[in-house]
């Protein structure tokens, strides 16, 4: 390396911190800017498909994740009331390189931060909100608002991993973020309720025209994620007021508030959007800053972490002289093709499936029929799960084809 490579990363969520960790461990000087004063603790995504687990393993933290998280053992699709439509079991023992994992998003970010902060070439700056970006042929910069005013920081590259409201994306493209917003909210809760006594799987999707919901084990001590849809016109107060009634309608046992303990409650708008470009010169986008999808199937989180794996390949290839700047165009093309060809259509089908009639869904839904076959033997289950690896992309295959050097 002719000089110490430098990368500025906007966003201290799992995507930004994971990118920083992967780069810093290879000698890159990394500065992470985060608009908030700490990691976001709201109940958000917690399911990592094999393509995401692969990147987490590459970062050397998978064992720490599994100390508190776990491999998904079983997942099911159910009718309202709990009857199984189909189920896949034994997923934690499948003979595949990387298995589906469960671990809350904020805890993953904290774990990555613990590994990143001690590194001498890594810096994390809180309360730094990116408001502008600029670049020339050799460097890129961000301007960020902080309590002390405005600062300007630069490096060889800038990467926006700063989420759905990305300051980097807005600085590049303004309000242009192609796609649409769903006409329903997703309400996410973390709740202590004994679902094991109802023979609940680690993960399940309950199909119903009105009372669809997703439920997933979070920890080993009885904490569950329960997420359901609501009318987007409802106020936050109305959403909270409706929660006891919704729980009675959707959860087995029709519990009353004295039968469960609510740990967290949040709500989010759902989007299907993707930028027209994930690279503009020396500025890149990854994760939710680049593309959004509804949470059914965990494709947004898995796809975002897969972005990080691909972009790490590209940047390390450039810094080591194994690739030219044009590999970033390939990153842009490959990652958008994965979003447009896999993540967007599959997550859309997954979302629409939720509001179908669980009584008849298996008769016409090819995906559920595939899941039913996967539930019959280990070989079919392994093939079913390995499909998720299509969300990843090994960019080292483009090494040694340089056109433009750093």
From TrEMBL:
A Pfam family recorded for this sequence: FAD_binding_3
Domain called FAD-binding: residue spans: 6-342
Name listed for the protein in its UniProt record: FAD-binding domain-containing protein
KW Transit peptide (keyword) present: no
PANTHER family to which the protein is assigned, alphabetical: 3-(3-HYDROXY-PHENYL)PROPIONATE/3-HYDROXYCINNAMIC ACID HYDROXYLASE (PTHR43476), BLR0106 PROTEIN (PTHR43476:SF4)
Swiss-Prot/TrEMBL keywords: FAD, Flavoprotein, NAD, Oxidoreductase, Signal
Organism: Cladophialophora psammophila CBS 110553
Signal peptide: 1-20
């Amino acid at each position: 390396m002719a000089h110490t490579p430098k990368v500025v990363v906007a966003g201290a969520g799992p995507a930004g911190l994971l990118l920083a960790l992967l780069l810093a461990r290879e000698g890159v000087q990394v500065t992470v800017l985060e608009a908030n004063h700490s990691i976001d603790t709201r109940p958000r995504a917690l399911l990592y498909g094999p393509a995401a687990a692969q990147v987490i393993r590459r970062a050397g933290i998978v064992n720490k994740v599994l100390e508190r998280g776990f491999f998904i053992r079983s997942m099911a699709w159910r009718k309202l009331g709990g009857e199984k439509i189909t189920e896949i079991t034994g997923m934690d023992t499948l003979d595949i390189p990387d298995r589906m994992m469960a671990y809350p998003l904020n805890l993953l970010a904290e774990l990555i931060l613990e590994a990143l902060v001690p590194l001498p070439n890594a810096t994390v700056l809180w309360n730094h909100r990116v408001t502008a970006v600029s670049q020339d042929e050799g460097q890129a910069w961000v301007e960020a608002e902080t309590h002390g005013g405005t600062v300007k920081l630069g490096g060889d590259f800038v990467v926006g991993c700063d989420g759905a409201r990305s300051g980097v994306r807005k600085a590049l493209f303004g309000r242009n973020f192609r796609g649409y917003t769903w006409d329903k909210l997703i309400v996410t809760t973390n709740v202590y309720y004994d679902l094991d006594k109802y023979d609940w799987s680690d993960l399940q999707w309950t199909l119903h025209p009105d009372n669809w919901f997703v439920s997933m084990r979070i920890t080993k001590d009885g904490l569950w994620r329960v997420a359901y849809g609501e009318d987007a016109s409802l106020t936050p107060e109305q959403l909270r007021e409706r929660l006891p009634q919704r729980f009675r309608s959707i959860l087995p046992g029709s519990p009353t508030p004295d039968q469960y303990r609510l740990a967290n409650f949040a709500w989010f708008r759902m989007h299907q959007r993707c930028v027209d470009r994930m690279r503009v010169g020396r500025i890149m986008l990854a994760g939710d800053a680049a593309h959004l999808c509804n949470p059914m199937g965990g494709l947004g989180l898995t796809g975002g972490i897969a972005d990080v794996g691909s972009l790490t390949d590209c940047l390390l290839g450039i810094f080591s002289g194994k690739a030219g700047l044009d590999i970033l165009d390939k990153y842009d093309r490959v990652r958008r093709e994965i979003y447009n060809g896999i993540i967007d259509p599959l997550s859309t089908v997954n979302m629409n499936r939720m509001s179908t009639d669980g009584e008849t869904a298996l008769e016409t839904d090819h995906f559920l029929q595939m899941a039913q076959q996967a539930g019959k033997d280990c070989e079919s289950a392994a093939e079913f799960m390995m499909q998720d690896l299509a969300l990843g992309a090994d960019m080292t295959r483009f090494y040694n084809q340089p056109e433009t050097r750093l």
